[in-house]
Design brief:
The protein has 194 residues and is of the alpha/beta class. Helix content is 33%, strand content 23%. Helix 3 packs parallel to helix 5. The radius of gyration is 15 Å and the shape is globular.
């Protein structure tokens, strides 16, 4: 989708959906494929823009921030794969920690804390109770890799600017719950704008 069209859609109260690219151990990331597949869609009347984010400590958060700055969406819904998960789970918390794990470029995080003077954890602003269902659960452990890092940064820096901001972990093999979260959030957004 072209930048002007994406901006026009997102400025109309739209939803920015991000997913990640490949990283060590996950050569084909389903979260990135999902984000790319919904780019340009309208769900329940809500414009959706999808972006794939690099799995790199130095580039992931700047890429998310740049997309929010350029598109000015009403909400940010971030997806990432968790190889040990069996179902889709909405993350209720992001922690101010970065694990010493190599990213897709072979780099480690520069610091153990993501925001040196930031709080220990931040809660999601997603309406998680409305998003759970038979194929979607909740989690209070977003890990200590880039999924957690971009979520913490986004909620710390953008939380007041976005109606909703949060993260969803998906299993390596996509399930119906992946799209269900997007559809339910779009429905909440559509009802809130009426």
């Amino acid at each position: 989708m072209g930048t002007d069209a994406a901006r026009a859609l997102a400025d109309a109260g739209g939803l920015l959906v991000t997913g990640f690219g490949p990283f060590p151990g996950v050569a084909d990331n389903p979260s990135g494929r999902f984000a790319a597949s919904v780019d340009g869609a309208r769900v329940d009347g809500v414009a959706v823009v999808g972006r794939v984010i690099p799995v790199e400590w130095s580039r992931a958060w700047p890429a998310v921030r740049a997309a929010v700055e350029a598109l000015r969406p009403a909400a940010l819904l971030m997806y990432g794969v968790a190889v040990q998960r069996q179902r889709v789970e909405v993350e209720r918390l992001a922690r101010n920690v970065a694990g010493r794990r190599l990213d897709a470029a072979g780099a480690l995080p520069p610091h153990a804390r993501l925001v040196p003077d930031g709080p220990a954890a931040l809660p999601t602003t997603l309406p998680w109770r409305d998003l759970v269902g038979p194929a979607v659960g909740v989690s209070d452990d977003a890990g200590d890799y880039l999924c957690n890092a971009v979520t913490f940064h986004a909620m710390h820096a953008l939380g007041e600017r976005l109606r909703f901001c949060g993260f969803v972990h998906i299993p390596p093999s996509p399930t119906p719950g992946v799209r269900a979260v997007l559809v339910r959030l779009a429905g909440v957004m559509a009802r809130a704008s009426v």
